[in-house]
Amino acid sequence: MTSAAKKTNPIRLAISSLAVGLVLSTALPATAEQAQPVSPELTPKLRDLLRKEMLSVEDASHQIMSYLIAGDDDEVEKLAQKIHDSFILQQSMTPEDKQDLMAAVPEDFVTQDRAFHALSAELAEAARNGDRSAQHQKFGEMIQACSACHSQYATDRFPLLAQ
Questions:
Q1: What's the start-to-end Cα distance of the chain, in Å?
Q2: Tens digit of each residue's pLDDT (9 = 90 or more) over 26-79
Q3: Residue pLDDT, tens place only, 79-118
Q4: Radius of gyration for the chain, computed over Cα atoms and rounded to the nearest angstrom
Q5: Beta strand segments in the chain, E
Q6: What does CATH list as the number for 30-162?
Q7: How far is Cα 105 from Cα 83, in angstroms, rounded to an integer?
Q8: pTM (2 decimals)?
Q9: How far apart are CA 2 and CA 16, in angstroms?
Q10: CA 149, CA 141: separation in Å to the nearest integer?
Q11: Which helix (H) or strand (E) holds 67?
Q12: Structural domain boundaries in the chain
């Protein structure tokens, strides 16, 4: 891709930013009856590992937003790939921890987590290809996935999502 093609069009950037905002504002919240926090069901070790992974994802997401606005495909790719590879839980769990996790969380929680990490891989791929439109779309989908999961499984941490 030529450097001229990679330059950020201010109008396109504004539209993409609005699209991300729209995705954030329209994430489907779960009702209070659907909310099932998983944190109370986790062992202290698993709760700590999950918290560390979520903080890492949150930090990388903040940085991705800045790099999307700046049009820095290389940094978006690195951070999106870092999120994809972050599986702190998997990397730090013993076989007993894995059994404890699977006993504590619904299958849908695991499905949503895998889908989220797949979206981050798709964002990394879009960044490698210099496809800014796809980057904005995939990042918006990632943020929506965060909100959807939190509204179901982290209402103890994010009580406003249960409303």
A1: 46
A2: 344 433 346 589 999 999 999 999 999 999 999 999 999 999 999 999 999 999
A3: 999 999 887 767 788 899 989 999 999 999 999 999 999 9
A4: 17
A5: none
A6: 1.20.120.10
A7: 21
A8: 0.76
A9: 21
A10: 12
A11: helix 44-70
A12: 30-162
